[in-house]
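SAMPLE LOG
Freezer: B-3
Tube label: C17
Construct: single chain, 326 aa
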Amino acid sequence: MIEVIIRTDASIAIGSGHVMRCLTIAKQLQMAGCSVRFFMNELPGHLIDYVEQQGFQNVNEMQEAGLCIIDHYEIDEEWEKEIRPFVKKIVVIDDLANRPHDCDVLLDQNIVPNYENRYDELVPVHCVKLLGPNYLIMREEFIRERNNLKPTNSEVKRLLVFMGGADPTGETMKVLCALKQQVLEYVDIVVGSSNPQKEEIKAICIREGYHFHCQIDYIASLMGQADFSIGAGGSATWERCFVGLPSSSTVVAENQHITTETVAGLGAVWNLGWHEKVTEETYRELIVSLASRKEFLGNLSSIGLKLTEQTGRTNSWLKRFLEVEK
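STRUCTURE (predicted):
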């Protein structure tokens, strides 16, 4: 049995994306016969309890393992070299390409300019590079949804709002204000447990008749039912593309700029720009304009599906991770 340690973190500042992505990896590795533990710190807004509820132990120091998977922007080759005596192989998940790594596999699922060779000088020669959306990390629920796609609805009746688990810039509240006096048949509002405004958001949803969801494991199903989504940049952008859901993206972190601009340039997402310039009125104008943008929304859906069609329905990164250990 392969022993695996996953080094990642979540917090109000970091968000929940790294941990949720790593949970997908952990479950796939567990199904493949691996023993998986997490190594996470108790930061404000951490998800250690949630990870343990999903059946994974959390440790507070590095332990011996066959494979260490690192998904963390604050870790580079210095720490990776320190843990070499404890592990046989190291996998790094990154999308910044701004620091060197001492790893055996590097995975970056994004499309950005020069994405095929921007890590060449940052990783060892022997490192296997898994680059681009062919290596998207998708939970099984997304793969099932992709396999059962419904025809795109040209009329937006059902709206999904998900601005990331923590939503540190308060985009959900902006959207809720923008929704006042707007007529939509069905509105789903999704937040994570680390969202500091979640109780206020829940109260507004109850008052306005919106459907409130907190720290859920069925977001793919909601995406499959929605006609349009207002979302943030980051990995959720690829999830929306993967199930053909037309969406907008608000850039809520510096590391989302390039990917969001690139994917928008390819025609797969509607880029609203940097969160400080995106206002309640921006969201209101977006919602009002949906009725007159049927062709545009259809193109967002079809291009998103096209960009992710080579991903594979069984997570093509999994075999490469397991091969590393052999």
